[in-house]
Amino acid sequence: MPTMETADFETELSLFKYDTLEQLPAEYRDLTEDERTERIEAAKAALGDDLVVLGHNYQRREIIEHADFIGDSYQLSVEAANADARFVVFGGVTFMAESADIITDDDQTVILPSMEASCPMAGMAEALQVDAAWAEITAAAPDADIIPITYMNSYADLKAFCAQQGGLVCTSSNAHRAFEWAFERGDKVLFLPDKHLGENTAYELGMEDRIAKWDPWDPEGKDAEEVAAADIILWDGYCQVHERFTVEHVDQVRAEHPDAKVIVHPECRREVVEAADVSGSTATITQTIADAEPGETWAIGTEIHLTRHLRRWHPEVEVLPLCGDACMDCNAMRQIDPNYLTWVLEELVAGRERNVIEVAPEEKELAKVALERMLEV
Ligand code: 13P
Ligand code: SF4
């Protein structure tokens, strides 16, 4: 197999991109849930229309209960774009809050209660690293127009890079439309960082035999001839929470609950998506359970907090975690602590902005182009 030279680059994983994180003051550490609820709601009432709280479906109950909007990454980016509030407090992970900052007006402030909420998958495709790979990939197919698409789960600098190269952003609910958009404008797609969402989208488009894999960490995992021959190049990133699900989990749940239907997130491996009845974004999963008939059984292959919310919201449906006790929560999402939420809201009431996410201006403008293209597909 012809291998390609690995370009040199120096970069650090973007685990903690914002080093201005302020820690929780001691007096907020031991609040009871009742105290917290009362104080959060009082702060929300005091801030009124100046505040909107967004909660991703994977947030804990204690955050979700105070959110004005709950949704998947796409829905929350639409809510952020439509928000008139001066302050957008984001119950989600860093890349989501960055996207909200990019989309909202300059006089709006986006706050991430704890800024250590960094998605490991987003850290698997550093803009510098992608820039180096881009030189290799474009050299492998010099006559092709390659359009980069980055999953929402990426940092602002990578979104900016994609815009600069004629590409865009997508979420799990519009990846197929983003691919179609790209193929109307170019010959090949480089999809980052989630190889599973990329592969699942290629299948959805009937392009599963047009894939080349690109492993930036392995010289053997980058084949110039494969890149030249393929239409879709998949970066080798993944989500640990979703890679955990296996076909054996699907088989086991079907053996134990013969009437159960299985729904999984498209960040799961291809074979798991194939073995499931339905796959879709966290909004699709939520809607599917909302639409289920009383008495139906659904096994859910995604982050455990959403499964627990669905159980609570729809007691008439039997909701099972697809891998039982082995189902994981997302370590990044878990960083958003309700005590931190209480603190940042009370600080806003007192006129102080804590843990603000502010994307660098040079990245912001371009990243906005990539996000706006997504909102239009
Ligand atoms: P959704 O876009 O489906 O909400 O997914 C976001 C995410 O991080 C899944 O792991
Ligand atoms: Fe990132 Fe996975 Fe957590 Fe989603 S569930 S935020 S992809 S680590």
Account of the protein in words:
By secondary structure, the chain is α/β, with parallel strands linked by helices. It folds into three domains: 134 residues, NadA-like (Rossmann fold, 3-Layer(aba) Sandwich); 114 residues, NadA-like (Rossmann fold), CATH 3.40.50; 85 residues, Rossmann fold, CATH 3.40.50. Helix content is 43%, strand content 14%. The chain has 17 helices and 13 strands. A five-stranded parallel beta sheet has the order 6-5-7-9-8, with helices on both faces. Strands 2-1-3-4 form a four-stranded parallel beta sheet, with helices on both faces. Strand 1, helix 2 and strand 2 form a beta-alpha-beta unit. The protein is globular. The relative contact order is 0.17. The structure holds 1,3-dihydroxyacetonephosphate and iron/sulfur cluster (SF4). 1,3-dihydroxyacetonephosphate binds next to helix 3. Iron/sulfur cluster binds next to helix 15.
Total count of domains = 3
What compounds sit in this structure? Answer: 1,3-dihydroxyacetonephosphate, iron/sulfur cluster
Based on helices, strands and strand pairing, what is the structural class? alpha/beta
| Known CATH architecture of the largest domain | 3-Layer(aba) Sandwich
How many β strands by DSSP?
A: 13
CATH superfamily of the largest domain: NadA-like
Compute the CA-based radius of gyration. 21 Å
* Shape, principal axes of CA atoms: globular
Residues in helix, %: 40-55%
Q: What's the number of helices?
A: 17
> What is the beta-strand fraction?
5-15%
Q: What's the main sheet like? A: 5 strands, parallel
Give the spatial strand order of the biggest sheet: 6-5-7-9-8
Low-pLDDT regions? 1-15
CATH class of the largest domain: Alpha Beta
* Secondary-structure element pattern, one letter each: HEHEHEHEHEHEHEHEHEHHEHEHEHEHHH
Mean pLDDT: 93
Do you know the CATH topology of the largest domain? Answer: Rossmann fold
Termini Cα gap: 38 Å
